[in-house]
Amino acid sequence: MQRRRYLDFELSLAELDDQILQLKSLDSRGDLQISTEIRRLEEKSQEILKKIFSDLKAYQVVQLSRHPDRPNFQDYIQFMFEDFVEMSGDRAFRNDQSILGGLAQLDDQPVMIIGHNKGKSTSENMARNFGMPRPEGYRKALRLMELAERWKLPILTFVDTPGAYPGIDAEERGQAEAIARNIMKMSGLRVPIVTTVLGEGGSGGALALAVSDRLLMFEYSIYSVISPEGCAAIVWKDPAFTETAAEALSLTAQKIKGLGIADLIISEPLGGAHRDPFGAAQNLRDSLKLQLQQVQSLPVDKMLEERYERYRRLGFFQSQQNMKSNLKSEAATC
Predict the structure, then answer these.
(1) DSSP letters spanning 61-109
(2) Strand pairing partners for 99?
(3) What predicted TM-score, i.e. pTM, was given to this entire model?
(4) CATH 3.90.226.10: which residues of the chain?
(5) Tens place of pLDDT for every residue, the chain, 334 residues?
(6) Largest CA distance in the chain
């Protein structure tokens, strides 16, 4: 059995879990005393795990969203979809492996699925550019979305990226234009679109796949205009402020739903999706089917009107001074 990888705040579990693994390797003949000790240690491990995850800080959620064992888009394709047929290339430059997409079946429902494609090993991540698309990746995604509209298929998009690739070659080929075009086109596609943030949802690189009728987020995923590290470097010019930046950015699923951006938070197994990928996939499947049914029940024009109003509602705020003025006005009328 492969040893589990632990984040810094989980290290108190590492030694205990190692003891459990060692005892299980000895328990080949069903020794009663060993079995009893295994159960005792497993119960203790669960108690510690519940305590740790009962009060996570924002940057700890960031770490979970990036966990090296966290299920990626390809894992969910394997667990949830049938008859997946990959469709490659943007028909202009090349096939960007950091975006994966194609036709699939969600139970009996034909769908077009498109998502950021992270790897598990160093070689996979290098081949997929660590899930950071170049313009041709976004243009491939748009090509598949337009095919889905032509064939009247719902679109399911899956976000898991630190952000769009910031290299010179990407800028030379029109990175900003590719992202902007996706945002513009997705706002008017005449088929249902449901987006799920699987792990990291970074900046415009995420938004280029996330203009949708419903936005779902896994419990330990994040969605932000910039990474906490990038924010700390720009605002404080000091990496020591990374955790402060994570709190200030309001990037956790709970905060994003509270701001009215996300519609639903998908529960993860205790300890995160990487501890039970199949269980996480079942929760995602149930949520996707329900949200898709709700959107599909709407007439197309009504669906587009609600999509438009959804984004018009975002971004309203009051400055502290305006709030104080309003409170004074209300107090004066009482």
Answers:
(1) HHHHHT-TTS--HHHHHHHH-EEEEE----SSS---TTEEEEEEEETTE
(2) 116
(3) 0.90
(4) 62-312
(5) 456 788 889 888 888 888 887 777 776 566 667 778 788 888 888 898 999 999 999 999 999 999 999 999 999 999 999 999 999 999 999 999 999 999 999 999 999 999 999 998 899 999 999 999 999 999 999 999 999 999 999 999 999 999 999 999 999 999 999 999 999 999 999 999 999 999 999 989 999 999 999 999 999 999 999 999 999 999 999 999 999 999 999 999 999 999 999 999 999 999 999 999 999 999 999 999 999 999 999 999 999 999 999 999 887 665 556 655 655 565 555 5
(6) 80
- Are 66 and 199 in contact, with CB atoms under 8 Å apart? yes
- Could you give the CA distance from residue 313 to residue 135 in angstroms, rounded to a whole number? 29
What is the identity of the amino acid at 290? L
CA–CA gap between residue 116 and residue 101 (Å, rounded): 9
**Dihedral-angle region of residue 198 (phi above 0 means left; psi in -120 to 50 means alpha; beta otherwise):** alpha
Rg value, the chain, Cα: 22
Burial grade of 48 (CB within 10 A; 0-12, 13-18, 19 or more):
middle
Please give the CATH number for the structural domain made up of 62-312: 3.90.226.10
Q: Which residues pair with 215 in a beta bridge?
A: 195
Planar angle of CA 203, 206, 209, nearest 5 degrees: 145
